[in-house]
Design brief:
By secondary structure, the chain is of the alpha/beta class. It has 2 domains: about 15-145 and about 390-460, nicotinate phosphoribosyltransferase, CATH 3.20.140.10; about 150-375, TIM Barrel (Alpha-Beta Barrel), CATH 3.20.20. Helices cover about 35% and strands about 20% of the residues. It contains 15 helices and 19 strands. It has helices at about 50-60, 65-80, 85-95, 130-135, 135-165, 190-200, 210-220, 235-240, 245-255, 270-285, 285-290, 305-320, 345-355, 370-375, 455-465; strands at about 25-35, 45-50, 100-105, 110, 115-125, 180, 205, 260-265, 295-300, 320-325, 330, 335-340, 365-370, 385-395, 395-400, 415-420, 425-430, 445, 450. Helix 2 (about 65-80) packs antiparallel against helix 3 (about 85-95). It starts with about 25 loop residues before the first strand and ends with a helix. Belongs to the NAPRTase family.
Length: about 475
């Protein structure tokens, strides 16, 4: 749902008054975006930059119109803040409604250490210097949310890879399906589900967030970015009644089982341990083994570490295991487990550590993550900020920065900036004048209202590969 439909109104109210607050003779304003710090509690080398391209494409496709200006004038007049109608009409007549700014950004999917500029914005028309900071609201929303979700998802993949290296003989590509997006219903909006779900797909290929698939196709050229399987919910199981629990399970196998097929069945509606040991492990054991596919048992309540450990032990008893070359047990391929309740990066590590201690490989389990993936993040998770760092007045550039004595962590960078990288020094933000254009990783992606560079999800995934 796009309420504003114009960048003039996709803004914090106070921005409308800022045109009159700059020094006399202001011509150009240069600002940057960065993730200042890691406040997530996760072990991370930086953030996965992602999510700018959808916004820039929307801006390119919807130039400002006379009706936008007329509506904005009316809204701000009633709202009680000034509106620079003359300036926006200048943009309409002189630039055909296209924003006269240059936006540079690091390539999406790049993992950039904290406290480095990942986006640089500067106006290109000295008579329209206010749009640089005016765009902060919409730019920050595009960058902080998608990048934060992509980073949390990426952090989980690092955890999974650690236990894969320790316990598994499976191909590393199996990790692509170890974390499934369960977050659509817990997201704050359809747009959040699409953007956040798409950010998760930077790292994984399992999702139940259909809007993310549509967005990945539309904005990143990936015809089908993720996959899912038939799965039960409690209503479809409990509708059979407690006495019909085993019949409900048998129906799932009958409807969706078969050679090479996977079917997930929530099994904790009454007693998950009884369900695994007696119903799946005895009454339906032959059907599970004979169908030629894989039953994925889903516990959905209780302490995830203890419940998963016990469910796996019962499944191993019922269906048997093989020991891989690293000395860890892998269930009969007819059975696997997925945990989707209480899942976050910390519980995933705890579950995998317990399973490894019990002698089980990571092969046996996948995870579904909902609110902790798409909703339990905010701008402060990585202290995202957009700040002005340089201003040109009367033809001369000068530094702009803040340095509050009450919080040194909120100090900002100064000057026109570049993002450099080399193998010896790594990533670092440097003065623009000290960096050759070819070495600046902040490349133009949007100039004067037009996209000048695009990327695909396949390219983003390659850059973000753990």
């Amino acid at each position: 749902m796009r309420i504003a439909n114009t960048p003039i109104l996709a803004v914090d109210s106070y921005k409308a008054s800022h045109k009159w607050q700059y020094p006399e003779g202001t011509e150009l304003v240069s600002s940057y975006i960065e993730a200042r710090a890691n406040n997530s509690g996760l072990d991370l080398p930086g953030t996965v930059f992602f999510g700018l391209q959808p916004l820039l494409r929307q801006l390119a496709e919807t130039p400002i119109t006379a009706d936008d200006i007329k509506r904005s004038a009316k809204v701000f007049a009633a709202h009680g803040v000034p509106f620079f109608e003359e300036g926006w009409r200048w943009i309409l007549t002189q630039h055909q409604g296209r924003l006269p700014v240059e936006i540079r950004a690091v390539a999406e999917g790049t993992v950039v250490p904290f406290n480095n500029a990942v986006v640089q914005v500067v106006n290109t028309d000295p008579k329209a210097y206010w749009p640089t900071s005016y765009m902060e609201t919409t730019l920050q929303r595009a960058v902080w949310y998608a990048s934060t979700v992509a980073t949390v998802s990426w952090a989980v993949k690092r955890i999974l890879r650690e236990f894969w290296a320790k316990t598994s003989d499976a191909p590393v590509e199996s990790l692509d399906f170890k974390l499934h997006d369960f977050g659509a219903r817990g997201a704050s909006s359809a747009e959040s589900a699409a953007l956040g779900g798409m950010a998760h797909l930077v790292n994984f290929k399992g999702t139940d967030t259909v809007e993310a698939l549509l967005a990945a196709d539309e904005f990143y050229g990936e015809a089908m970015a993720g996959f899912s399987i038939p799965a039960a919910e409690h209503s479809t199981i409990t509708s059979w009644g407690r006495d019909g629990e085993v019949a409900a399970y048998a129906n799932m196998l009958r409807q969706f089982g078969g050679p090479g097929k996977l079917v997930a069945v929530v099994s904790d509606s009454y007693d998950v341990f009884h369900a695994v040991e007696k119903l799946w492990g005895e009454e339906l054991r032959s059907q599970v083994l004979d169908m030629g596919g894989t039953l994925v048992i889903r516990p959905d309540s209780g302490d995830p570490v203890e419940v998963v450990a016990k469910v796996l032990a019962l499944a191993a008893q019922a269906f048997g295991t093989e020991t891989n070359s690293k000395g860890y047990r892998v269930l009969n391929p007819a059975v696997r487990v997925i945990q989707g309740d209480g899942v976050n990066p910390h519980s995933i590590r705890a579950i995998l550590a317990r399973l490894a201690a019990d002698g089980f490989a990571i092969d046996n389990i996948a995870f579904g993550m909902g609110g902790a993936l798409l909703q339990k993040v905010d701008r402060d998770t990585f202290s995202w900020a957009m700040k002005a760092s340089a201003i040109r007045i009367g033809g001369t550039w000068r530094d702009v920065y803040k340095e509050p004595v009450t919080d040194r962590g909120k100090g900002s960078k100064r000057g026109r900036l570049a993002l450099a990288f080399d193998e010896s020094a790594g990533w670092r933000t440097v003065p623009l004048e000290d960096c050759a254009e070819a070495d600046n990783r902040l490349r133009p992606v949007f100039v004067d209202g037009r996209l000048v560079a695009t990327t695909t999800l396949a390219e983003v995934r390659a850059r973000a590969e753990v």
